[in-house]
Write the structure tokens for this entry.
Amino acid sequence: MLKCQQVEQRADALVDGTPLSTRERFSLSMHLLICRHCRRYVRQLRALAAHLRHRAAPTAHDHQVQAVLDRVDHSRQVTDHKRHPG
Ligand SMILES: [Zn+2]
């Protein structure tokens, strides 16, 4: 039977979707069945991973990003023009 510490070490792989051997996956499942502490740990890790994935996902649409880039580019040209008149 795995110890809690071993489960925590493998929890990352479990959450990431890293392939584990059938035996490892089985051992983890067995431990999670009987250990409330590790169940909660894995659940929190999953929630955290989902949260991070959500944050990493682009929130702006491509055309919005392009609009901002155009504006930045435009203001830079204006500044250059002021700095070097003529
Ligand atoms: Zn445990």
User: Anything to note?
Assistant: The CA atoms of residues 47 and 53 lie 10 Å apart. Residues 4, 7, 31, 35, 37-38 surround zinc ion (CB under 6 Å). Helices lie at 4-16, 22-34, 36-56, 62-83.
